[in-house]
Design a protein that fits this description.
Helix content: 40-55%
Structural class: alpha+beta
Strand order of the largest sheet: 1-5-4
Strand content: 5-15%
Order of helices and strands: EHEEHHHHEEHHEEH
Shape: globular
Radius of gyration: 17 Å
Bound molecules: zinc ion
């Protein structure tokens, strides 16, 4: 059995949701345009897991297309789920639970050099397995004490979600500098122009 060590990163689920920017505008910016983008993104969290699927998806274009659709559908479900959470609503869990089933289990902990991570079993490539660390992050955030700290940026055009880890507990913006500040607006503008080109 081939296994992979996965070392969790904080709130990967929100980082994944935020691969789509400016949700509140007529021209949202999406970092993910195909399965190759999802593989690169997922590779940042777990290079071994994503790298193992890369060649398989390259050789199976039809499955790659449906895996990309499934990845985006998952992201949008997570967005709704955490946007609801930010508003104090209890979200429906059935879609996430079905995805967790398909993602496969976290088996047990293992050491790798100075690190400790989850040993996970590699299985048939699919969106849920590729994004398993995102799904576990979502489940851990929902079932943990920080669920009440999920916020949606106060800029209605932004749409990014974040954890309010401020001492005062009243952080409103996705970034410490106001979301609407000129530098950031310019950066997103340039990114959007690049995406549209
Ligand atoms: Zn924002």
């Amino acid at each position: 059995m081939t296994t992979t060590l996965f070392i969790p990163t904080d709130d990967l689920c929100l980082s994944f949701v935020n691969t789509r920017s400016w949700r509140g505008t007529a021209a949202p910016v999406d970092e993910l345009g195909g399965i190759s983008d999802v593989l690169v993104w997922a590779g940042q969290a777990n290079a071994a897991l994503a790298g193992g699927m890369q060649a398989w998806f390259a050789a199976h274009p039809r499955e790659a297309t449906s895996a990309f659709s499934a990845a985006i559908a998952l992201r949008e479900v997570l967005f709704t789920l955490f946007a609801d959470t930010a508003e104090g609503k209890l979200a429906a869990l059935s879609f996430l639970n079905a995805a967790l089933d398909r993602a496969g289990p976290r088996l047990h902990l293992a050491r790798q050099d100075a690190d400790i991570g989850w040993r996970i079993e590699n299985g048939p490539p699919c969106a849920e397995r590729l994004l398993a660390p995102v799904l576990w992050s979502a489940a851990d955030l929902l079932a943990g004490p920080r669920r009440g700290l999920v916020r949606k940026c106060a800029n209605p055009q932004c749409g990014w979600l974040f954890i309010d880890d401020s001492k005062s507990g009243n952080r409103r913006w996705c970034s410490m500098s106001a979301c609407g500040n000129r530098a950031k607006a310019q950066r997103h503008y340039m990114k959007r122009r690049k995406a549209d080109a």
